[in-house]
Amino acid sequence: MISELAPTRELTLIALHGYGLQQLGVTHGELIETPAAAYPWTARWAQALHDACPQADGLIWMSRRFTGPRALMLWQGKGRVQAGDLVMKVPARPLWEGSGRELALKVAKRAKIAMVG
Description:
Blueprint: E1 2-7, E2 13-16, H1 19-24, H2 28-31, H3 39-52, E3 58-62, E4 70-74, E5 86-93, H4 98-110
C-alpha cells in the first residue's frame, strides 16, 4: 500500500546528512552507504539517537541510491509523533492494482527494474 501523509505540526528531525552527519563525526558512506550486513550497526545508531534525543520525532537522510529526495523515519510514542500529528493527503492505494500499480510500474521502469506478474 502507498499513501501520502502531511504533518499537522512542525516535526523535529535529526538530520543524517550534511552538517548533521558532520556533528555526529561520521560520513554518509559510513552510516548510509553500508551493505546489508551492516544494518544491525546502523539500527544501533538509530536506537542511540532515539534514546539521546527524546524531543526528536524521527530521522531524515538521503538514500544511498536516490540522493535527491529525503528518506524519513518517524518515531511514535509519548513525546513523539501521535496519530493527530499526521493527516492523509492521498488515501492508501494498493501497489498491485489500479493507480498504485501504475505508480509502481513507472518507478520500476525509471530504475530499470523488470516487474514480473
